[in-house]
Write a structure and sequence with these properties.
One of its GO terms (biological process) is folic acid biosynthetic process. With 283 residues, this protein is an alpha/beta fold. It contains ten helices and ten strands. Helices cover 39% and strands 15% of the residues. Strands 8-7-6-5-4-3-10-9 form an eight-stranded parallel β-sheet. It has a two-stranded antiparallel ribbon with strand order 1-2. The protein is globular and about 40 Å long.
């Protein structure tokens, strides 16, 4: 059984699992402002768990293309009250942050089980802060920063470059004493990539996973690449495309699917599992 050592929990990754998104921001691209208040965030997290989320990802800074930075104090003011509430719901809690100071404060609560970092622990001191804390870590690839990353992304071979970067960040963590069983890697769909780059990565997920040497987390839910494919401008109207992309990622080897639409994704995965189970009964 493939298991992620995830803070207070051991997460079974023998089959893909769904990570539910709780954005406590006013400006996230799809659901900014909807769950900003701690009580709203708690209700939303519980709903996602009821719908099949195996873990919850809390984010206090929008990293959509063109997003402005928020201060550390503002990010902490957003996420800390939510952690206090969501941390007792009985599933692993992931904190989506790229800042060392936010990691340090949040980890001190004992309620964070996974650090989901779009900067792959590149912030000064981040590696030292998470080492020895017993939490899982997701290392993501991005090219550039959110405010400029989509201006002119360029690669020679995007699959090899992304896979190579993730392999180096994984090696850095392992050398620092973080067990490989605590690590995930994320190719960073939409983070400094064109549509062509994103599609190449989705087709090449197996190669990325092989190079990284740890399970993959993917985040394709409602993203602009899906709007570019379907012509749907409204992110909230990209459900079908999001579920299709999640299934494609799961078939490509992804083990954690970070999504807004938990119920639909979980149902699709359940059908996929039934169809591929040895000796399964199609009736």
């Amino acid at each position: 059984m493939q298991t992620l050592s995830c803070g207070r929990y051991a997460l079974d990754l023998s089959r893909p699992v769904v990570m539910g998104i709780v954005n406590v921001t006013p400006d996230s691209f799809s659901d900014g402002g909807r769950h900003h208040a701690p009580e709203q965030a708690l209700a939303h997290a519980q709903r996602l768990i009821d719908e099949g989320a195996a873990l919850i990802d809390i984010g206090g800074e929008s990293t959509r293309p063109g997003a402005p930075e928020v201060s550390v104090d503002e990010e902490l003011a957003r996420v800390m009250p939510v952690l206090e509430l969501v941390g007792s719901l009985g599933v692993p809690v992931s904190l989506d942050t790229r800042r060392t100071a936010v990691m340090r404060a949040a980890l001190a609560t004992g309620l964070v089980d996974l650090i989901n970092d779009v900067s792959a622990l590149e912030d000064e001191g981040a590696l030292e802060v998470v080492t020895g804390r017993g939490v899982a870590i997701c290392l993501m690839h991005k090219q550039g920063n959110p405010d400029t990353m989509q201006q002119a992304p360029a690669y020679g071979d995007v699959v090899d470059e992304v896979g190579g970067y993730l392999a180096r960040r994984v090696a850095l963590c392992v050398d620092a004493g973080i067990e490989r069983e605590r690590l995930l890697a994320d190719p960073g769909f939409g983070f400094g990539k064109t549509l062509a780059h994103n599609l190449a990565l989705l087709r090449g997920l197996g190669r990325v996973e092989q190079m990284a040497g740890v399970p993959l987390l993917t985040g394709l839910s409602r993203k602009s690449m899906l709007g570019a494919i379907t012509g749907e401008a409204d992110p909230q109207q990209r459900l079908g495309a999001s579920v299709s992309a999640a299934l494609a990622a799961a078939r490509g080897g992804a083990r954690v699917l970070r999504v807004h639409d938990v119920k639909a994704t979980w149902q699709a995965l359940a059908v996929e599992a039934a169809l591929t189970a040895d000796g399964g009964d199609a009736a």
